[in-house]
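Hi R.,

Here's the chain you asked about this morning:
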Amino acid sequence: MKDYIAWQIFQIRRDGYSVLPRKIKLALVVILKSPLYVIALPLVLVFRIIRPWLLMRFGALMSLNIGHFALTTELYLCEHDAGVNRPVQRHIDLFYFGGRQMCNQQLATMWKRTVRIWPAWILDPVHRLNRLIPGGEAHEIGNNTQNDRDVHNLLDRFPSHLQFNVEECMRGDAGLSAMGIPIGTPFICLTVRDSAYMIAYLKRGDYSFHNYRDSDVQNYWLAAQALADRGYYVIRMGVKVHAAINSDHPKIIDYATNGMRNDFMDIYLAAKCSFCISSGTGFDSVPQIFRRPIAFINHVPIVDLSTFQKYTVCITKHHLSAIDDRELSLKEIIKSGAGFCRTVSDYESRQVKVIENTPEEIRDVAVEMSERLNGTWQSHAEDETLQQRFWELFPTDAQERYLGFPLHGEIRGRFGAAFLRNNRWWLQ
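And the predicted structure, written out as tokens:
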């Protein structure tokens, strides 16, 4: 899919790899797995022969990373429903799990009920062999999504393609009860990115270039307490984290560290939460595919703000000049290219430091989301003017750096109201 292709291009350009060694690697894989390719070859030939009447397409679900595994797959289904990037002729799409490991078994189970998934041991060789034989492009599912960007605003148009069965609903309610959350009581999912997961589970390669996205979970305690005082349970999510959140509030549950975390409850909680607070992680794609509102905090890069859905509120990290320790305005961030940075070295090359939002800023966005959803939000007179000014300065026409596809469709999200009120200078 396009996000995978973009990621590969990004890695190639970042590390200076050429395309040729990757072709050689593909050929070596074919040689080493030659018995499987003996089986795959007749299938590829049959699929080529029947193509005028029935187009068979293949694709790998990126099961290593939950963000891609969730949102890329859901957007493929939404685009298929909308007739976007969908072949005119009769076709069948076949998928296989393409990651070295499975990021979430429950999500895999639910996708198996929704899309056609073949065993990787047979479809992966078919897919690879099809790429080596000229004319195989038509059989690639490939370009159905744009780097997990819902540029057609399809998540607001179509319902979620995933549903829990009766047994799963009973299991999920039992899981909530085991955590001390009464059935029917509203709860919030809190997900704060740090590097612990990648260090523990993605051991091939150095992913420290992502560290500019990290946040300190302790800065979210004020927001968690404000929500808990309003009657919500706040559940801190995470498969692997550096530290527990410092709180003894009975309604703040550190599910990431209390020993109760499992693949099933990760998905159930994300699907049933009142809304999610996220610093921009792969996990927030799960509430997104279940159409749950999301408050994005400490979001970087700015150009990637989630703008596609109505019930989304965002704020970004502060950007400081490393030369004179001066905070940059939004216009300066965009003009300098810092709003487009996707690696630590990108920021360093522009002599820009990113600084986390304050606990008060985080609390304000959490409260804004809560009040917008329950109908008690009170706008200030200048809010719409500030909001309009922000989106005038924001690069809504921005494109992906290497493949050139748009990053935004219709702007439906909002930037945090309190942040703009308290930083009017930022919009100058």
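Residues 66-82 form the longest helix (17 residues).

Let me know if you need anything else.
M.
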